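Q: I'm teaching a short session on how sequence maps to structure, and I want students to see two examples side by side rather than one. Could you give me a first protein with its sequence written out and its structure tokens following it? Keep the formatting plain so it prints cleanly on a handout.
A: Of course. Example one:
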Amino acid sequence: MNGAHQSEEILWRHLRDLPYFRAMVRAVEDSFYQGLELPGPVLDLGCGDGHFASVAFDHPLDVGLDPWWDPLLEAQKRGAYRMLTLSDGAKIPFPDGYFGSVVSNSVLEHIPHVDDVIFEIARVICPGGRFVFCVPNHRFPKLLLGTQTFKRLGLKGASDWYSRLFNRISRHKHCDPFPVWQSRMERAGFEIEQHWDYFPADALHRMETGHAFGLPNLISKKLIGTWVPLRSKFSLYLPYLLTRKVFRDPITPEGVYSFYITRRKA
């Protein structure tokens, strides 16, 4: 399989399972993990329903951890983990230095006590272990289409209200810039090896408006248990057209998400 075809398959495997506005960002993140060395055992912190791990990795990860039962039950059906654990991320039920790597995909932004969680990750990861995560950054609330539209109309109050509303709907507790994350990592004993920003504003706008047209996907999920009832490439061609540009060229200094590769100091 050549690289171009493999890349297209990454996008398609998310489009077949998720509404396009979620698939477009998850496919980009999936591509970042390809070829990334993750020494075992591997912990997926905030694994949710296990969908991302089931398609992004070609083997089950060692442990999936989440504080909610229902997503874990769905993750169990997918077989994406060798073990599933119900727990808060600040109280991981494993001994010091147990894991070789920890991944957390678009999770930390939802956790109010994120600093406690990062210190706990530092406890359970071995010296030299790798912690990989991605989060929305400080540009996310500023570059939303609704926020920008109200701002251009001179309606600052409405602009700020919309930004807060969308972040509340997205359950974001943190949308922080690099210096904030760098400080968090250093306090917990991690060093940032690499980081980059991705997902430009026009892609954010497509994802944002997609939420408004996602009702059919929600109905499908409630009635038959799947977000996407018709999974052929023909039926998904329009979502493919909406997502392929950002998938092919996602990294930008003005991106609204950030990807971090860090290592626990010895």
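Q: Perfect. Now a second example for contrast.
A: Example two:
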Amino acid sequence: MRLFLAINLPADTRREIADATAPLRDSAPELGWVREPLLHLTLKFLGEQPAERLEEIQGAVAGVAGRHRELVMALGGIGAFPNFRRARVVWMGVAQEPRLELLHHDVEVACDALGVEMDGRPFRPHLTLARVRSNPSEERMRLLARAAKKTTYTADVVIRSIDVMQSELTAGGSQYTTLLSAALRSG
């Protein structure tokens, strides 16, 4: 099973993001835009895992979730990795928040204990909006960058759980299934 750990967004927030970013999709329709139901924040990509490890993964994720209280995640701003001229990914930003950083760190440590290698890159929380699969023209990317600057959407989202997600690649694109959800402490 191809697994990852995510913070899933409420349906109304996903709808608001899709509405707010429609001008981006219009300015560069050839990009691989993430469908509205799939918008999420990835905490950790686990890759291919045998089904027998699911219980062990669930225990590790539940342990991390039980040590953290619910927190607010601030969304807003559009950018690209590494930049709009050479974009590979177009994203919506997630404000750096110490409690989110600590949650991510604890997820990394728990996954390392399971034998899933730590990611050596700094945590840059974001929602992936699109993947760039081809080489769009410079003009197309300038249009996209201009549309990004005009996107003013912001929202605060309460993080209530860490979800263990299965990703299946199909002819119609990726399909995500929530296998397990570990609740953060309320309050």
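Q: What should students look for in example two?
A: Point them to this: The mean pLDDT is 95. Also worth mentioning: The chain has five helices and nine strands.
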